[in-house]
Amino acid sequence: MRISTNTIFDTGGSQISDLQGSLYRTQQQISANRKILNPGDDPIGSARALVISQSDAINDHLAANRNTVKGSLNTTEGALAGITTLLQSAKGLVVSAGSGTLTASDRATYATQLESSMNDLLGLANSRDGFGDYMFSGYATTTTPYTQTVNGATYNGDQGQRKLQVDTSRQLALSDVGPAIFGNIRASSTTFNSRANSANTGTAVISAAISTTTPATLTGHNYSIVFNNAGTFDVTDTSTGNVVSAGNAYTSPSTTVTVDGIDMTLSDAVGPAGTTVPPAAGDRFLVQPGNQDIFESLTDIINALKAPGTTPQDKADLQAALAQANSNIDKSLDNVSNSRTTVGASLSELDTLDSDGAAKGINYKSALSDIQDLDYAKAITSLTQQQITLQAAQKSFVAISGLSLFSLL
Questions:
Q1: What pLDDT was estimated at residue 231?
Q2: What is the mean pLDDT of residues 294-301?
Q3: Which end of the chain is less congested by CB atoms within 10 angstroms, N or C?
Q4: pLDDT over 90 for what percent of the chain?
Q5: Could you tell me which residues are beta bridge partners of residue 264?
Q6: DSSP 8-class letter at 250
């Protein structure tokens, strides 16, 4: 069979070109340390590598989120530890202030110390995290959580709890909201905590409930009721010092007066001798909201310590206020303890998730390496073989292309 010169050159050139292409591709693989240079090299392997790469990227992102949450929780734990110390110190002051031998100067000293503790507590309540955001204001991270008022402090944040995704199906909070830590102090099982002064000479009792007609006027303030010589009584908002209802006549067996959305009912009670003794001049009664925050509780006891405290009724009011403050601080410490427990549990969970995430990362990278990484020994052997084959093809082409009748002339 005769083979034309054009066929020899076309076939030889094509073969040499293919060999050069294979050699060039092997060189690229060695340079990139990848056996898959484009999806066409291995469509199935490329698809698997893409899925694994995406999973690995998500795992890395979740690890970054865990570091962010861990930093915020550690900052929160530091603030909560400081709050715990302050509340324990305040509790010690309240217990010490219960001594019956204190002078007005001693009470003023305790009040000053408690004011300092409250200012420090407000500073911790308005703490910021490492990003400059307020920790205890919910979603309102640029809003100062608490602003001091004459009654204690007002919460300015919201009830939202910021969370970050720390695992594919798990979110963790960066901190708690202010009311969960500083509020929710249940002074009683009902809406209001009402009591008679232990120095009262009458045997009347008091109860308080939210008014069904004017609930929107509730203030959350404390109130005192004092009977005067004319058989009437005045209601004072002790949080502001203003008399809000004066000259109310008392009629046996009971009388109800509505003040700031509260129905306050005074009733005769049976005395020790089995007789009914109505309220007497100078008898006092106290009404407090049933759900306070620690700032209001501290303000109440500070105001009580600053009061004259000279009469038996004054002293009885102070002892009752101290007992209430002691109980409220205990409940506030419970709130802080619960928050610290939650923070500790979250930090422990993050450590576990970090270990799992690290193991996943190793597995992802190992699987990706099996698909993409080049076997250097095999690649070098192939490269050497391709170089030799190309050289042989080039020499063969030169020899074959020289086989012509012109060489015999």
A1: 82
A2: 89
A3: N
A4: 35
A5: 208, 257
A6: P
| Per-residue model confidence (pLDDT) at position 348 | 94
Give the contacts of 56 (CB within 8 A, at least 6 positions apart): 361, 364, 365, 368
The structure's pTM equals: 0.72
Confidence band of 77 (pLDDT split at 50, 70, 90): very high
Task: Give residue 49's pLDDT.
Answer: 73
Token pair 């009061």 is found at: 307
Examine the pLDDT at 146 and tell me if it is beyond 60: yes
Tokens of 326: 């002691």
Question: What is the DSSP secondary structure assignment for residue 128, as one 8-state letter?
Answer: B
Q: Are 134 and 140 in contact (CB under 8 A)?
A: yes
Question: Average pLDDT of 82-110?
Answer: 89
CA 357 – CA 64 distance, rounded (Å) = 11
341-362: average pLDDT? 93
Contact 228, 281 (CB under 8 A): yes
- The amino acid occupying position 368 is L
Give 293's contacts (C-beta < 8 A, 6+ positions apart): 152, 153, 155, 179, 182, 183, 184, 185
How many C-beta atoms lie closer than 10 Å to residue 274's C-beta?
A: 6
305 C-beta neighbours (distance < 10 Å), count: 27
In eight-state DSSP terms, residue 281 is T
Residue 255 has pLDDT above 70, yes or no: yes
Residue range 112-125, pLDDT digits in tens: 999 999 999 999 99
Q: Does residue 282 carry a pLDDT above 70?
A: yes
Do residues 404 and 5 touch, judged by C-beta distance below 8 A?
A: yes
